[in-house]
Amino acid sequence: MPRRRKSDLGRSSSGARAKRIARSQESEEHTQTRLTLDAERHASHRAAETEEQSQARRFLDAQRHVAQRAAETLVQTQARRLLDADRHAVLRDAETLDQSQVRRLLDADRHAALRDAETLEQSQARRRIDADRHAALRDAETLDQSQVRRLLDADRHAALRDAETLEQSQARRRIDADRHAALRDAETLDQSQVRRLLDADRHAALRDAETLEQSQARRRLDADRHAALRDAETLDQSQVRRLLDADRHAALRDAETLEQSQARRRLDADRHAALRDAETLDQTQARRRLDADRHASQRAAETLEQTQVRRVLDAERHASLFAEYRGR
Q: Which of 24, 80, 106, 182 is most buried as measured by Cβ atoms within 10 A of its Cβ?
């Protein structure tokens, strides 16, 4: 009967213990040399792997990393993340442009595959974590970092939109509209007011930077969009929109200075004149009927004081128009 071979578990354990002791006594130069040699050895091993061996190694590494992370304390987790972040930053800084593009493509494919495999609960949890992480990063930004990030985001979004197909563009707009509506519905009154002020400042800055051609193109797009929205309104939605518009216009007029009011009236007069000049006969007649109905309903709702004020203003306006006509 052959002799039973002794287990080498004790020998391997003692060998691992001896290596740990030797590593703890290394100098900084020796540690860096050993790490470099290990990296080269691992790289050569990976290069010689078959596809099956590579997948098996990655699977084992993933399980080992998951087990190690599950056993970490909070302090160990934070320390590991800091080390990983530093290591990734060093690797990215050493990349060539081609290596950077390849890495981004691989990362995008990997993230897409992970998102496709998520359950609804995992997807919602990931989005909350991402939102918290992005918010923390933005809060820690300096003004210069914030401006650089916004420029990069704007360029990236523009490149993505330029590469969209018509179907992708329509789907993105619907998703954006739903997301914005959900965010607005969840706003408090103070948050809503702050958002509107920020939006107004942003829109004003964009308009100030427009060229004449860009301004005309934006107005045409806005007009088409508003017309499409009005055509899709129900009667109740149309009435609500008109009431809101009236309140908003009244608030804007109340806040005007005398010069702003006069400038607005001149612009309105020019705009109305241009619209009337472009009307067909049928459009003119339809507009006059609508104006007559609107004026009649407004007069019917006036108080006695409002009627008297309106008549005085009308008389002054007619007198100025008549004087202007006679001066010609």
A: 80
